[in-house]
Amino acid sequence: MTETAVTPKIELPPTLLAGGRANLIGLSRSELAEEIVKLGEKPFRARQLWQWLYVRGATSFDTMTDIAKPLRARLAERFAVARPAITRHQQSIDGTEKWLLRFTDGQEAECVFIPEEDRGTLCVSAQVGCTLSCTFCHTGTQRLVRNLEAGEIVGQILVARDALGEWATPEGNRRLTNIVMMGMGEPLFNYENVAQALKIVMDPEGIAVSRRKITLSTAGVAPRIRQCGAELRVMLAVSLHAVNDELRNRIVPLNRKYPLAELLAACREYPGLSNARRITFEYVMLKDVNDSPMDARALVKLIQGIPAKINLIPFNPWPGAPYECSSPEAIAAFAAVLMKAGYIAPVREPRGRDIMAACGQLKSASERERKSRRDAVAVA
Q1: For 247-256, which contacts have Cβ atoms below 8 Å and span 24 or more sequence positions?
Q2: 110 included as an active-site residue
Q3: Residues 106-153: pLDDT tens digits?
Q4: Which of 149-158, 163-172, 217-226, 325-334 has the lowest average pLDDT?
Q5: Which of 12, 125, 203, 273 is the right S-S partner for 184, CB 3.0 to 4.6 Å?
Q6: Interatomic CA distance for residues 109 and 107, integer angstroms
Q7: 324 annotated active-site
Q8: Candidates 110, 152, 282, 367; catalytic one
């Protein structure tokens, strides 16, 4: 494991940067054009800016050489093109990289890059903290602080592409090929910002990641699943983890609001479902909790008729976790039942465990540090 710490920047309100400037990162095309028109410029300038931001990865107006210097100066007075600040960078022995990012108000979240032979996936956060309190998830033990804005979500992708040196790289040669909204927080509880960010990421004249290479993961916010399907049509992953409401109510408390029948109805209605565009059901393997062959058979019955694959996730431990991971034999037996029923059921290889970057392990170090400081002040 390698780790690099970076001195944090000055804390400011999340909507403003130094000097009261607004950040252009995260604005939609139409919003960007409106700002340009307010400056008395033609709307086509917005397209120039868009390509500098999302094709060439500009971090300063000074580098935008096809824009006249006077206009660059006016832009720099009113706007910025800022990324989140990196406060810690860690690299696992398996090549996984994790960045702890600080936003302008001092709040922090993590994103993770997972390199594989045929792809490179960036796991992106939607919130600082989480409100779901899933009992097997480390992130769920951190209180929800706030939603991330569209620019802060896009900013995670920009930071990763900066680090990988991939600006102006042809799509076929990129290391970062896939985006998964599986980091900190529930994306569908921050739908408007997530949707705006993903539209920016999918724009063919910008970052240009295909909707087929973007996966949004949800614990089951059923009404928003329908909206996501209608408006974004990205790939969908559902954190299922249990085959009946009694158990799911305990380990995924959101189930009390959107029980399995409502959740699976929303899944069946998801647009474009086919054997080529399956829903992924995530299923964390918890020893003696949800990992029996009987559970596997119930899962087959539960999702019958939905084009799907099931990702079996060995539980990734964290300090104080109340569960143990299922044995390899139990996981293999569970997978065998699913595969016999015709489902693809890969066992996800844990990545980045040594830097707490594996599934369910993300938790902002800043939150732990702040808690320590609060405790010290209380004692004093």
Answers
A1: 247/289, 247/290, 250/135, 251/134, 251/135, 251/136, 251/286, 251/289, 251/290, 252/132, 252/134, 252/219, 252/220, 253/132, 253/133, 253/134, 254/132, 254/134, 254/186, 254/219, 254/220, 254/221, 255/220
A2: yes
A3: 999 999 999 999 999 999 999 998 888 888 887 666 789 999 999 999
A4: 163-172
A5: 125
A6: 7
A7: no
A8: 110
